[in-house]
């Protein structure tokens, strides 16, 4: 997916019937949005999507081998993605669809408000045959990173590769509480059960717990104890509040080192945190060290992203 940042006035959002801090997905009925947004001048183009964002930040911070599998359209945006990943030395395999579009997320910036419009395009078209070929070429004993978004977009594929992932280290990012109300929940639950590590925010763990047990939890400690297994690590963030995590079936907390203020852009901070978690587990650090890396990388990303956004729109 490619992130396309566009500076806009509130009047543009109103004309397009978009809400500040809202989210809309192109679904065929609103293709007019895609046509209009593509004609606007972008202030920045960059690789995007939660999984790819995590890999990009990880490539900049940690010197470890990375391999990304995805599907794209055969268009100008594909070249932008390929060039960026080549520069970052991220190995990738893209299944290319000539009659489809590379996925895009239009980020409409209005002061400190932003509205997101996503065109999934070819990103949901990844085939079983292509993935099988890619997985056959991977070395043994690798870490797999899966997001809830990826699972929800590829239900058949996710089920198909489940047995392969059981034999490897698997880190799961819950991604969004919105994924647990429909049929995709059952697939995400299967991944949850075989994951060595699960990362998510409080809202995601809370919603997942309610779907699993059908009841309201008392607190985050109850959520993590009842959801997790003894040898599984669960890590729960909650904005500027303490981070909770499990170790050998017990729940611990880690305080946020500093308050960054209200006027910061936290979009993507969870991806940076996940990158730190991936790096720490790959390097076999202690869970305490891993949590600290996640916090440090997330803080760094927030400050850099806030500065970048301010330069673009003010």
Question: Would you kindly provide a written description of the structure presented here, covering whatever features stand out?
Answer:
The chain is of the alpha/beta class and 314 residues long. It has a single domain (50-101, 121-313), classed as Ribokinase (UDP-N-acetylmuramoyl-L-alanine:D-glutamate ligase, 3-Layer(aba) Sandwich). The chain has 13 helices and 13 strands. It has helices at 10-15, 31-38, 50-61, 76-88, 128-136, 148-153, 155-160, 162-166, 184-194, 202-213, 220-227, 269-282, 287-313, and strands at 2-7, 23-25, 44-47, 67-73, 91-97, 104-110, 113-119, 143-147, 169-173, 197-201, 233-237, 243-247, 250-254. The strands form three sheets. Strands 8-9-10-11-12-13 form a six-stranded mixed sheet, with helices on both faces. A five-stranded mixed sheet has the order 2-7-6-1-3, with helices on both faces. A hairpin with a 5-residue loop joins β11 (233-237) and β12. α12 packs antiparallel against α13. It is globular, with a radius of gyration of 19 Å. The mean pLDDT is 90.
Short summary:
With 314 residues, this protein is α/β, with parallel strands linked by helices. The chain is built from 13 helices and 13 strands.
């Amino acid at each position: 997916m490619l992130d396309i940042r566009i500076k806009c006035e509130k009047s543009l959002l109103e004309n397009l019937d978009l809400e500040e801090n809202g989210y809309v997905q192109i679904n065929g009925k609103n293709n007019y949005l895609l046509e209009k947004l593509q004609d606007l001048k972008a202030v920045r183009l960059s690789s995007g999507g939660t999984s790819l964002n995590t890999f990009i930040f990880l490539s900049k911070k940690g010197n470890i081998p990375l391999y990304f599998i995805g599907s794209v359209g055969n268009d100008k945006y594909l070249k932008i993605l390929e060039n960026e990943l080549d520069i970052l030395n991220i190995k990738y395999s893209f299944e290319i669809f000539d009659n489809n579009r590379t996925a895009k997320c239009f980020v409409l910036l209005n002061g400190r408000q932003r509205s997101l419009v996503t065109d999934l395009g070819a990103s949901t078209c990844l085939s079983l045959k292509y993935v099988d070929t890619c997985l056959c070429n991977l070395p043994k004993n690798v870490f797999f990173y899966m997001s809830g978004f990826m699972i929800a977009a590829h239900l058949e594929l996710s089920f198909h590769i489940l047995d392969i992932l059981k034999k490897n280290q698997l880190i799961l990012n819950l991604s969004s509480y919105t994924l647990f109300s429909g049929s995709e929940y059952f697939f995400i639950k299967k991944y949850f059960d075989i994951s060595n590590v699960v990362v998510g925010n409080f809202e995601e763990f809370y919603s997942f717990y309610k779907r699993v047990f059908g009841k309201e939890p008392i607190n985050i400690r109850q959520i993590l104890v009842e959801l997790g297994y003894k040898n599984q690590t669960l890590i729960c963030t909650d904005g500027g509040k303490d981070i909770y995590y499990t170790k050998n079936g017990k729940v611990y907390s880690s305080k946020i080192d500093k308050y960054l203020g209200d006027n910061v852009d936290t979009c993507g901070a969870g991806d940076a945190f996940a990158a730190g978690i991936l790096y720490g587990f790959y390097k076999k650090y202690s869970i305490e060290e891993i949590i600290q890396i996640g916090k440090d990388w997330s803080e760094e990303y927030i400050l850099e992203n806030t500065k970048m956004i301010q330069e673009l729109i003010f």
